[in-house]
Amino acid sequence: MAQLYYKRSEQAPYRDRIPLRIVRAEAELSPAEKLYLSAVDKGDYAGVKRSLEEAQIYFNININCTDPLGRSALLIAIENENLEVIELLLSSNVFVGDALLHAIRKEVVGAVELLLNHKKPRGDKQVPPVLLDRQFSEFTPDITPIVLAAHANNYEIIKLLVRRGVSIPRPHPVRCSCGECVSSSEVDSLRHSRSRLNIYRALASPSLVALSSEDPILTAFQLSWELKELSKVENEFKSEYEELSQQCKRFAKDLLDQTRSSKELEIILNHNDDPKAVVDPNNPYNLDRLQLAIKYHQKEFVAQPNCQQLLATLWYDGFPGWRRRHWAIKLFTCLAIGLLFPVLSLCYLIVPKSRFGVFIKKPFIKFICHTASYLTFLLLLLLASQHIVQTDLSMQGPPPTKVEWIVLPWIVGFIWAEIKQMWDRGLMQYVNDWWNLMDFVMNSLYLATISLKVVAYVKYNGSRPRDDWEMWHPTLVAEALFAIANIFSSLRLISLFTANSHLGPLQISLGRMLLDILKFLFIYCLVLLAFANGLNQLYFYYETSADDENHCKGIRCEKQNNAFSTLFETLQSLFWSIFGLINLYVTNVRPRHEFTEFVGATMFGTYNVISLVVLLNMLIAMMNNSYQLIADHADIEWKFARTKLWMSYFEEGGTLPTPFNIIPSPKSVWYLCQWLGRRLCPCSLLSTRRKRHESLGTLGVRAQMTLRRAADNLRRNHQYQEVIKNLVKRYVAAMIREARTEEGLTEENFKELKQDISSFRYEVLGLLKKGSRKRVADRGDVANSADSRGDRSAEEEEEARGAASSLAVVDAAAAATAARAPLCLSANGVLVYDTDSAGAASARLDDRRSLSRKRVFAWRSKVKSRGCGGVAATAGAARGPHAAPSAEAAAAPSQLNGAIRTVSEEVDRLPGRGGRDDGPGGASRALPRAPAASLGAATSRPWSSRGGRIPAGGTARGDGRERTKGACAPSPLFASDAEPADAPDESYDTCEEDGAPKRPVHRDSFATTRL
């Protein structure tokens, strides 16, 4: 194979070879530019600075040059998260371009801050065309910094951008027909749809909603509902919109998880965003926000345990400890209340403010009374169907029986209750409930039955044998409709199963299966009509004559074969054949036309195969799938359905069960009299009313009431905003802790640490070269005085101490990488192992992997200025300025290269790089343990992987709890129930070890973790 491309063999002719050439050649980089980009990639700060200086002096380097991957020096530094190099490049006015977007995608907070604070230079710069080509850019034009940050859901970056006043364009509805949408769709429909999707993905970001929305819960509700509707219209992106809708639902539920008291929960669930709404503070059953959640189908929010706990408390109001009672006591209590519902209803009618009148208004008691009333209605229907009262069956218009007269008030009460419900809720909300549609059908059937019985009683007032009645006789039709209404009435009882935890999921699964049956019937009816038309066309000629009908006397048999004679008979025969009630002889014909019989039998068999083998099994699979979906989310589905049932009894009105709801109460009579008085006597009442309203005292009272209502609304809104503020703070802190806990050890962690150590290499080598040159100069100057020799000795000691300290930093970082143990800066400025948390280092190494150049220089400057007590420095100081370098200092370059090789080998052993697996006996077990001599008892907070430090607390979770002896003092990044505060640019954290204070460690900013 190699010979095919690299040399020509004698056996293979030239025509069998494939000539290769570079079609799309790119501009070659000069050696200086290659060295410049290599220095940026390796983190060689001095090399980058030297290249930039040469570019300004000799103009031999294009500082905006790109590598073969199209990356400029700034993008390479951003990918390596090298903040010092980024700052150096920005100070040299390199071309920025999409660097901010790349920094946001990499979630490098420090780089984002530098780019936001960078002022673009004036004048033209030499920029490669590839950087100016929008087609080459990795980001589409609709991707703005805030949109990309919202896609990444990075709380800190979003906060930085929002504080600078960024905005997101409001997406237009899908059916919007404005000129902008029409023109954009005509120019590029794909870009138009993708742009809308990107905007909605940004708007659905939990961090963006938590930061920018005054009411995050309401925003999540509305956005989730809008995304769900979009998924039905934009079928091409259905899965994406559904995922975003589910994300908004989870966000609202997670916010509710942060509630810590019943008071906070009541404020959240009772909040009404309508400023004109009149809220009764003494009524605990408003639950306006919960009703809104049910309207928007926020099942996770409704089924949240805190919400269900409050609902259960309100539902069993007046029955403390109901769930802890024995089942026999519960049953006896329910039976007693159910039997006494007529007495309780009469007490409420007469004295509604009495003890019994208030007792029946409680939701649980109201539910028992309504259930007892409906069970009584079903019992009366059963008695009516058994005909316990003897009647004349030959009467064409029989009068109602005594049982039917008793049933009539219940029917009127049901109709009146449905009218009130439709009036209170509105037509659309009434229609959205399927049980209301079932009630409408049931009541319509009862009304039709009563109407037909009245018509039969008035029009047919005589006796006539029932056998002589016509098919559409009003009495016969009324009896048929009454029978169907009885079926609906009995099935309506299934809605009460929702209150039970065992029967509720089954009832929900049954409802889903009915939808599957409707889908199946649509396809089945098409197949049924197709085969019915064909079989009827084939067999219409062979209809049995009237002479042969006497053989079977109305029973279908082989001699009386009219199964496919008409279209209606064919439909019936094919339908009943599914249940095996049709024999094969139906395809036979009286004249022995074998070809016709063969074609008919083939068609009949094909129909059975399609209907039984294919369609019926498909229906079974669909029903099984629906049941499994409900079973997987049985708890959420049942709690949501139960909440809808409970909320219907929390509402004001509808206290009395049927038939007592049709009896006018004294309050209703008084309201009716007032209404009639205003309509019948408008003059006197109008003048009295005008005088009353014109009085100054009345106007003052009305004004006071209005002001009091406005003050109450402001107070409730202020309480709600305080609770929402606390919930958002807790949510953000919880998400950061969870993200830090879930992040695992990846190959990227080792790559970043390897890059940091590579930066150390060039720094230490430069320091050693500088020290060597100074020592050579010192050896040549032998005529200096003793004081000068003392000064040179101090300088040499300082340089040697700095070199040894930097080398110790490299050794400790490399050993920590191999042992996967955390690092800590000890009292003498040397990185050592953190033995307190070495056992959990594997799970938290990524939070310590990125030691930025800025921090390294801060450490080196402190070590260099204060000394580190290293071996090399001590030996050099003891020997004096003219002594030869110590063995440790001479071996520093080899030790440094060995540390780099150790880290490289361990990175190469990672899975996916051709090394051993990370399982037992793999790379993870082959990592060497840290030397015992290097282990120290000091602890320190590790660095975050995204440009900041992890909050103190002893673990990478950032929970804010204090650690034991030797731990760093926690910084107030996330105080209890407080928003993450912006740390100052120059702040220090002090650590203590065995009572001795450590050197302060510089901290740039607080940690940023991907949510």
TrEMBL record:
One of its GO terms (cellular component) is cation channel complex. Residues 979-994 have a biased composition (Acidic residues). It catalyses: Ca(2+)(in) = Ca(2+)(out). The keyword NADP does not apply. One of its GO terms (biological process) is regulation of cytosolic calcium ion concentration. It holds the Pfam family TRP_2. The chain crosses the membrane at residues 327-351, 363-383, 403-419, 440-460, 480-499, 520-542, 562-586, 598-620. Residues 176-238 form the Transient receptor ion channel domain. InterPro entries: Ankyrin_rpt, Ankyrin_rpt-contain_sf, Ion_trans_dom, TRP_dom, TRPC_channel. Residues 923-938 have a biased composition (Low complexity). Residues 227-254 form a coiled coil. The keyword Repeat applies. Residues 778-800, 906-1011 are annotated as: Disordered. It is found in: Cell membrane. It comes from the Eukaryota. Residues 906-919 have a biased composition (Basic and acidic residues). This is Short transient receptor potential channel 4-like isoform X2.
